[in-house]
Design brief:
The chain has 3 helices and no strands. The protein has one domain (about 30-95). The chain has helices at about 10-20, 25-60, 65-95.
Length: about 100
């Protein structure tokens, strides 16, 4: 297996990442926090939809329309999250292809 040389830019980036939160800029942490909160919201919608479906299946008399709405909200939010993830990955790949 051939070894890869580490450029100074990559070394600086690696060092910055290992230094912890105090080395991150305010924008980086705000974006990361935004993404984390968004993922948590999607997770909560998934949990609510699952509980609603279980409740309906158990025969607790819950309205089927509300259950379907909860399932659709969870599905749409998950699809949106996946599209955002795909766009972030695509942007990252494009940045990595840039020549310095």
């Amino acid at each position: 297996m051939k070894e890869m040389s580490v450029t100074p830019e990559l070394q600086a980036l690696s060092t910055k990442q290992t230094q912890g939160p105090e080395a991150k800029s305010r924008g980086d942490s705000a974006f990361a926090q935004f993404l984390e909160e968004s993922i948590d919201q999607v997770n909560e919608l998934q949990k609510e939809a699952s509980l609603s479906a279980e409740s309906l299946a158990a025969g607790n008399g819950e309205n089927i329309h509300e259950t379907m709405i909860a399932l659709e909200k969870a599905e749409l939010s998950f699809k949106m999250m996946m599209q955002v993830r795909n766009k972030i990955i695509k942007a990252y790949e494009e940045v990595m292809r840039m020549q310095v």
